[in-house]
Write a structure and sequence with these properties.
The chain is of the alpha/beta class. 23% of the residues lie in helices and 21% in strands. The protein contains twelve helices and 21 strands. The chain has a 15-stranded mixed beta sheet that branches. A two-stranded antiparallel ribbon has the order 5-8. It has a two-stranded antiparallel sheet with strand order 13-14. Helix 1 packs across helix 2. It is globular, with a radius of gyration of 25 Å. The relative contact order is 0.15. Keywords: Signal.
Length: 504
């Protein structure tokens, strides 16, 4: 056999070309291999130009839903979860992200495409509306080689268990936003953060994509006291976690507490003593009313403002306002609060995300010496005891006017504290057709019953498929998955101030 020989002066050149090709092949293998899409692989794919990135802001009440949807698109052996923070237990309260190689075609992206999905929760739903409409850059989590391993499994199997912790942010335009209520509601003074510049929301391509169930939450010490007060447990007994032992609060009590009308006071006698008698807690009159609420601009707070205070809906200046906030025709002013405590009058904590409310209720107030009580508001997709973990976040959901905030109650109209979440992007600044196609797929399909059924089990009690997502009359549905999630209730399109009605 004749063996071709290269001239000596071409051998170094050939070796250089081979080395370059091997490096390129190694990078491609790192990106396309069936392993978790780690920070190093993300950096390699980003450098190679093969990584697809999607950035979303707003709606911390939607963070579990969109995370669960993304996971359902992923090759499980390539899925990773990123929380903001440092060390083995990052908080993830402000930012979360997910990465993988797609297991199916999504939009224009084919099977095997490496995708990084970054979600900003800080600031709530407002951040998914006005900055998107005005093309204002936001701080978004930087997912790169600076992220560190938490010690949890990689690839990840649970969106609530991060593989990596990321401590840096980057300023950039978010591709889209998500909000618990329609964009127009955030132009109302009660929901518009300082400096209160209203924007033209007609610049947004906005549509509803699921129905979100909201709920009233209390810390465990108050939950136990309510159970005893309502005869659900014996005197001095411990919490009973059975669903039929869930205590209730009235809408009038919740509205009063959250708007600052109730205080711990032996003179007024208008506080926790309304729901917890002295026979359960002899010191109840002096117990401070601690309110763990969201800040101005939160969609969870905006939905509460509508549902229980008619704030953001009524005309004129005589508007009921959530505690700690003064609402006028043109301004909203945050009022300073006393410290959260067991005894006192009234205190409140305004959190930038759902995690802040969970911490206020279940860690700060629950951890105070003695028997301190607190009340708050969260979307039902949050859970105080995540499935498959030993975690107990120290709070519990309660019934509202005797009705449980369960999906089966809400979908037929028995529980009415439900609002349509929306997803939106700018009609002019989102010019990447592939990113738009990915987001369109999420908005069109993410809220359907089949998708909700494969979502993380901890999200499933908090979301429903809107009537428009399925065909035919509600009573004619026979598919068990559709029946599990399908709602027959709805409000007018993009009109949270309209009542829930049976529409199917």
């Amino acid at each position: 056999m004749y063996e071709a020989q290269l001239p000596d002066n071409q051998i170094p050149l050939m070796e250089s070309h081979m080395k370059t090709r091997l490096i390129a092949l190694a990078a491609m293998a790192a990106v396309g291999s069936a392993h978790a899409l780690s920070p190093a692989q993300i950096d390699a794919a980003r450098t190679a130009g093969t990584l697809k990135e999607v950035y979303m802001a707003g709606g911390s009440a939607q963070r579990l839903f969109v995370g669960a949807w993304f996971q359902a698109q992923c090759n499980p052996s390539t899925f990773d979860v990123f929380f903001n923070g440092t060390g083995a237990a990052p908080s993830g309260s402000n930012y979360r992200a997910y990465s993988c190689n797609l297991k199916k075609k999504v939009g224009n992206w084919v099977v095997g495409t490496p995708v990084l999905f970054v979600k900003r929760d800080a600031g709530g739903s407002f951040q998914g509306v006005n900055p998107i409409a005005t093309a204002t850059p936001q701080d978004l989590m930087a997912v790169n080689g600076t992220c560190t391993a938490t010690g949890n499994a990689s690839p990840a199997t649970d969106i609530l268990v991060p593989s990596f912790a990321c401590n840096n942010t980057v300023s950039r335009l978010a591709d889209a936003g998500v909000s618990d209520v329609e964009p127009a509601l955030f132009q109302k003074p009660v929901n518009l953060p300082a400096p209160q510049v209203k924007v033209d929301t007609t610049t947004l391509d906005s549509k509803a994509f699921n129905q979100t169930i909201m709920g009233v939450v209390v810390n465990k010490k108050l939950y136990r006291a309510l159970q005893e007060a309502q005869g659900l447990i014996a005197a001095g007994g411990v919490i009973d976690e059975a669903p039929n032992k869930m205590p209730t609060l009235s809408r009038t009590f919740v509205a009063s507490a959250m708007s600052g009308q109730l205080t711990g006071s032996t003179a007024d006698k208008r506080g926790w003593n309304i729901v917890v008698p002295a026979s359960v807690d002899a010191a109840v009159l002096g117990k401070q009313v601690n309110v763990c609420r969201r800040n101005i601009g939160s969609g969870t707070q905006a939905s509460f403002n509508v549902e229980l205070l008619n704030a953001g809906c009524g005309t004129g200046t005589a508007t009921y306002a959530p505690v700690g906030q003064t609402v006028g025709t043109d301004n909203s002013t945050v009022v300073a609060s006393p410290a959260l405590a067991e005894t006192g009058t009234l205190a409140w904590n305004l959190g930038s995300g759902s995690g802040a409310v969970e911490t206020c209720l279940g860690t700060t107030v629950e951890g105070l010496p003695g028997t301190a009580y607190a009340i708050g508001m969260l979307s039902r997709e949050n859970t105080p005891t995540p499935t498959g973990t030993s975690t107990d976040k120290g709070y519990r959901f309660v019934k509202l006017d005797g009705v449980s905030p369960a999906r089966d109650s809400a979908k037929v109209g028995n529980y009415k504290f439900v609002y349509n979440a929306t997803m939106q992007w700018s009609k002019t600044t989102l010019t990447d057709a592939d990113v738009k196609a990915f987001l369109t797929a999420l908005r069109a399909n993410g809220g359907k019953a089949a998708q909700l059924n494969v979502a993380d089990v901890d999200t499933q009690q908090g979301v429903m498929a809107a009537p428009a997502s399925y065909t035919g009359a509600y009573e004619d549905q026979t598919d068990p998955v559709t029946l599990k999630f399908a709602s027959r209730m709805d409000r007018n399109i993009a009109a949270s101030c309209s009542p829930m009605r049976i529409v199917k």
